[in-house]
Each structure stands twice: as C-alpha cells, then as structure tokens.
Amino acid sequence: MKKTASDELSIANREIAFQHQEKEDRAAELIIANKELRFQNEEKELRAAELVVANKELAFQNEEKERRAAELIIANKELAFQNSEKEKRAYELITANRELKKAEDDIRKLNEELEQKVIDRTAELEAVNKELGSFSYSVSHDLRAPIRAINGYTRILAEDYADRLDDEGNKILLSIINNSKKMGVLIDDLLAFSKLGRKQVTVSEVSMNDLVQTVRDELIFDEGENVPVFIISDLLSAKGDKSLIKQVWVNLISNAVKYSRHKPITRIEISAYENDSMVVYSVRDYGAGFDMQYYDKLFGVFQRLHSQEEFEGTGIGLAIVQKIVNRHRGKVWAESVLNEGTCFYFTLPKLI
Question: Which candidate, 250, 268, 260, 276, places its Cα nearest to that of 331?
C-alpha cells in the first residue's frame, strides 16, 4: 500500500518535472517564435518600404509612359503633317516641273523663231548695206566730176577776172574754191569708206614697228607748226591687211597731231601689249580731248565732237578706223578727258 503511494508520488513528480520541462521547451520555442515573428515583421516592414518605393517608381514610370505616349501622339501628328506637306510639295514640284518644261519648250520655240528672224534681218541688213554702199559709191563717184568742174572754173574765174571783181566778189570766189576743196576731200573720204566694204582683207604678218615708222615719216608739217614728239614703245607684230592697218595708224596719228595743235608741245605716245589672243595698240595724245558723255557719237559717219572752225575734218576718219578693225575681228575704243587728252585703243589677232 505504502509502496503504491510512493510510486504514484514519484510518477506525479516525474509528470510535473516533465510538464515543467515541456513548459520550458515551449517557452524557449515561444522566444524563438517571437524572435522569428519580429524578424518576419521587420522583413514585412522592409518589404512594405520597398513596395512603397516600387509603387513610387511604378507611378513615375507610368507618368513617363503617359508623357512619352503624349509626345508620341504629338510626333505622330507632326509626322502626319510632314507627310501631308511632302505630298503637297511633291504635287507642287510636279506642277512646277510641268510648267518649267512648258516654259523651256516656249523659250526654245521663241529662240528658234528669234534665230530665224535674226537670220532674215541680217540678210535684209546685208542687202540694204550692200545697196547703200553701192549708192554711196555711185553718188560720191558721180559728184567728183561736177565738184572738180566747179573748183576748176572758179579758179579760172579768179585768175582771169579777179581784176574785174570787187573785194566782196573775190571773197566769194575764194569761199567757193575753199568749200569745193572741202567737198572734194569729203567725197574722197566717203569713197574710201564705201570701198572698205568691198575690199578683200588679205591677212599676213604685219611689222608694226616698220609700219608706224613709215606713217611717221610721211607726216608733213607747215612752217611754224609744232612738230610732234613721238614716244614709241616696241610694238608687237600682228596679223592683218597691211594697207588697211596702215590707214588705221594714219587716221589715229593724224588725229592725235591735229587735236594737239593748240598745245605748246605736241606729245604722242604709241605702245602695245598682249591680251589673251589679241594685241592691244594705243595712241595717246595730250591735246583737246573730248567729253565722254558724247562717246556714242565718236565712231559715227559725219559725227564730229569739235567745230569745223576749231579743227577741220570730214567726220569719217574714225568710222573708217572702226570698220577696218571690225573687219579684222578686233575692237576699237577710246578714253578721254576734256582739255587733257585722248587715248585710242584697237586690237588685232596676235601671231601664233
């Protein structure tokens, strides 16, 4: 009986000890569980904070997407507008090309018509010039005989009947003689001008040094008249008709001498230089000169920039110069200052 109670007490103590041990184990597990729970809570808070950041990032990305979408919409609209403009410009370009082609066709047609008109007009002008040259030659030639007759009979009248005329009559006779002489010179110049259109140009090498020296030696001066001081550079040779080119030098040098007559010293400079395939010759004087506003009249037939009383002449000399130079495919021009002098230039093909 006593043994049984002791055993039960022992069993009860063991049970109590076991339960205490269980409680301790459960307490230890609870501590671990609490730690685990705290850890999990901390993880949850960390994940929540990360989730807040992620949500903010997602919201920002959504805003960026919306902004990019808006920009894309605008870009698409702009692209659509540009495509529309391109189509419009393409249509305008097609229209412009059509109009340009039509304009080119019209211009080509007009050029063809103009070329034909120029050909026809040139032929007409050549025919008119030929007729005019023939007329001028014929009239000038026919006038020679009556002018010579007037001059001759007037001289006979002056020589044989001068004593029967008073001073006024003799003065009139002298005027007739002088004017008939001028008329004769004018007719000779006009004939020379007319013949230029008929004369065949014979091209050869022309030594300008020799030709200018010949023209200079042939100049005749009256007693008491200023003899020119010539300054002549080495002149390049050129291609041309020697007799025609000589006439150019005669006319230009004679003009330089004539229009320097009233200066104390007559100084004439003659020079030449190359310019591409041409030789440029010049004759410079320091005489009367002329006003360049009247330049257009300079090379016209019967055009004069000074009075007959101041400087004699027929007004044909420079027209002859221009015609000769043109027939050699050259150019002639002048530069001048009134009362200071003039420089004439002309070009001829240089030797190759």
Answer: 276
How far apart are alpha carbons 232 and 229 in whole angstroms? 10
Cα–Cα distance, 307 to 294 (Å, whole number): 14
Tracing tokens 């001059």 back to the chain, one arrives at 151
292-328 as b/e: b if 16+ CB within 10 A:
eeeeeebbebeebbeeeeebebbbbbbbbbbbbbeeb
In residues, how long is the chain?
A: 352
Superfamily of domain 202-352: Histidine kinase-like ATPase, C-terminal domain (3.30.565.10)
Distance CA 105, CA 252 (A): 50
Whole-prediction pTM: 0.52
Report which DSSP code applies to 279: E
Encode pLDDT of 224-255 as tens digits: 777 889 999 999 999 988 888 988 998 899 88
Domains of the chain, residue spans: 1-198, 202-352
DSSP structural state of residue 235: P
pLDDT, position 272: 94
| Ranges 63-72, 79-88, 289-298, 341-350: which has the least confidence | 289-298
